Amino acid sequence: MAGEQDMTLEELEDGYSVAQDDSDVTRNAQELEAVFDIPVAVSAVLGKARLQVSQLLRVGRGAVIELDRKVGEAIDIYVNNRLVARGEVVVVEDRLGITMTEIIKGDRR
């Protein structure tokens, strides 16, 4: 789509620090304080699969469903059903986590 651009975290951080000084950052944080407690839904999508209902009904415990992504490929990170970043799965102690590797600028889905 026209007008969309992928940015790395480094590019985002570099642009932010160049565009604003410390007083601007403090003022912007104070202006945003009212929305800090609003909950948002964050989803990490490893991949997708399309099945017919008959196939879905045959899926049982231990079944493997092939996804449309390859091992090592970036996963999509959505906030309130909007694609905002891509990342990688990491293990933190005994839990799974996500490392954002790319910020998506624009309205991509």
UniProtKB/TrEMBL annotation:
Q: What is its main location?
A: membrane
Membrane-related topology note: Peripheral membrane protein
One Gene Ontology molecular-function label: cytoskeletal motor activity
Under InterPro entries, the record lists: FliN, FliN-like_C, FliN/MopA/SpaO, FliN_T3SS_HrcQb, SpoA-like_sf
Domain Flagellar motor switch protein FliN-like C-terminal spans what residues? 34-104
Pfam families noted in UniProt: FliMN_C
Per UniProt, the keywords (alphabetical) are:
Bacterial flagellum, Cell membrane, Cell projection, Chemotaxis, Cilium, Flagellar rotation, Flagellum, Membrane
Q: Which GO terms describe its biological process?
A: bacterial-type flagellum-dependent cell motility; chemotaxis
Q: Does the keyword Transmembrane helix apply?
A: no
Where is the protein situated, by its record's location annotation?
A: Cell membrane; Bacterial flagellum basal body
According to its record, what are the GO cellular component terms? bacterial-type flagellum basal body; plasma membrane
Q: Which domain of life is it from?
A: Bacteria
UniProt-listed PANTHER family: FLAGELLAR MOTOR SWITCH PROTEIN FLIN, PTHR43484
- Role description: FliN is one of three proteins (FliG, FliN, FliM) that form the rotor-mounted switch complex (C ring), located at the base of the basal body. This complex interacts with the CheY and CheZ chemotaxis proteins, in addition to contacting components of the motor that determine the direction of flagellar rotation.
In the record, the note on similarity to other proteins reads: Belongs to the FliN/MopA/SpaO family.
Name assigned to this protein = Flagellar motor switch protein FliN
- The scientific name of the source species is Oleomonas cavernae
Phylogenetic classification of the source organism: Bacteria, Pseudomonadati, Pseudomonadota, Alphaproteobacteria, Acetobacterales
